[in-house]
Every structure is written in structure tokens, then in C-alpha cells.
Structure of Thiol:disulfide interchange protein:
Amino acid sequence: MVKKPAFWLLALCAALLGATAGASGLPPANPALAEQVEALPEADLIIYSPAEVKHRVTVFTDVNCPFCRRLHTQMDDYLLFDIEIRYAAFPNINNALEQMHGVWCSEDRKSAMSKAKRNEIVKVEGCQSRAVDDQLDIALSNRFLGTPAIVTPRGRVLYGHVTAERLIEILELEAASQ
């Protein structure tokens, strides 16, 4: 019986992803990335904070990314687990670069982010945010594979939709291994 090529491609991808994970099943820590992300000025990020912050992640997001939109609609879940979500820009789908500049140039960035994630156009005439360009440079220089790219305090990059329950498990495991 001959297997379909898609099966072998999926098997290869799974093997490659498994090879980059540590014994804990998590991607390897990247202290240099953690340092770059920690150095981002808070004023350049869009931050959603719980009443008491126990954990913090930086999410490189794209307003047109379906998994990023899903994460955004579940923001309250992350906050319930005392996880602070710090959005950084990683525009890569369709008109995302223009949209992200509009979001970052808006007076109320959180409201603008929610509008953009609902596929509403956000424009601020004549504005190009240096923060968006700087954050995009970090994502590209670290060869991020897609969005959302969730960066943990130790510089691990988690791709795609990660539930609040799974994210808290990962963050607590990471904190315990320090």
C-alpha cells in the first residue's frame, strides 16, 4: 500500500517540530530573543493586564490572522489566569501592515485593535508607527514562522492558538525550571 505524499509531508513536519522541542516537550528557550522582547518599551506595546500579573507573554500578532483573532476573543480567559498579554506587531497577511500602523497610531489602541480584529478598517492619515516597524524587524530577524507567535519570558516561541489553560501550564512549567 502506497501512502499519499501529504502523509509523508505531515510526518516530516511532526518529526522536525519534535526534534526542536526539549525534554519537556516545549520549544527551546532563546535567551537572546527573551532579551530583545523584554527591551521593547511598554509604550510601544498594546497591553492587556489582569488585576494581579503572575505571568507575562508577548504575542506577535497580525490583525488578519484567524488564530490571532481567536486569541483576541478569548482575552478574558488569559486574564482570569493572571496572564498579561503584550501585543507586538507582526503584520504579514494582506493589508495588515497598513492596518497595524493605523492601530498603533490610534489614540485608543485597544479599541482600534478590537476593530481591526473584527475586520474593520482602521486608518490614521499620515501616520507610520516606528514601533510597528521595530517589532516587525524582531519577528523577521528571529525568523518567526507565523502568527500568533507567543514569546514566553525565557524566549520560547509558541505558534498558533494556545488556550489559556495550556498557556498557564507552559508558563508554570517554565517558571519551575528556572
Remarks:
- The helical segments are 5-20, 31-38, 66-73, 75-80, 96-105, 109-117, 130-141, 164-176.
- The longest strand covers residues 55-61.
